[in-house]
Fold this protein.
Amino acid sequence: MKILVCISNVPDTTTKITFTSNNTQFNAAGVQFILNPYDEIALARAIELTDGGNGTVTVINVGDVGTEPTIRKALAIGATDAVRVNAVAHDAWFVAKQIAEYAKANAFDLILTGRESIDYNGSKVAAMVGELLDIPSVSIIKKLDISGSHATVEREIEGGKEILSIPLPFIAGTAEGVAEPKIPNMRGIMSARTKPLQVIEPVDVALNLEVTAYETPAPRGQVKLVSADETAKLVDLLHTEAKVI
C-alpha cells in the first residue's frame, strides 16, 4: 500500500501572534514551528497500516527550505520518504493543487491529512485534493481500518456515529481517535538524516485570494465576579455590559 500524508509546518501553540507589512503577513521572526498535531495523527495511522513491510508512507509539505526540520521529524517518526514542494503555501487552493499534481503522478492508494492545520483552521485541503483527483473525500474521521481494497471509517455525527465503507483510493482528514501520535526514538532520529527528501518545484496556480488584513482579537476585559445569590445583578451585567442577552 502506498500512502501519502500531507503535513503542515505550523507555529507552536504558545506563539505570540503578530503581523507585518501593514497587517497582511504573519510575522515569523522568532517563532518556533512544529509539525501540525492533527497531521501527526494521520502520520501515525499511516505508519501503523504499513507496519511490517506492508507498504510505504510518503510525506509531502508545501513550503520553503525552513520547513525541512519539520519534514525530518516526520521521517524520524517513521515515514519512508518525503517531498517538499518548494514554495510558500499561499492558501488552501494553492496547497491542494500542488499536492494533487504530485499525487496524480504517483498513484497513491490512500491520502491522509489532519482534520485542519492549527494556524488557519480551514479544513479545506482534503476536500479540494479529492475533487482535483476525482476520488472520494471524507472529512474529520475518528477511526480508519483497511481490509483489501476497501476502508471502513467512522465519523462523529449529531447524536451518534456514521460508519462508511469506501473503496481505495480516497482522501481523509484525520482527528483524535484515529491513532496516537508517535514520538521519534533515537534510531528514527538517526535514520531520518539519510532518508530521501525530494524537492520539487511548484506548478503554476492562478491565485484567487488576497489577504486584505489580519486582526488580532481585542484584549480580554477585566473579570467581574458575581455572587451566586445575585442573579438579578448577573442578568443586568449580561444585558447591559456583555450584551449577550
The two ends are 55 Å apart (CA to CA). The chain has six helices and 14 strands. The first helix runs from residue 37 to 49.
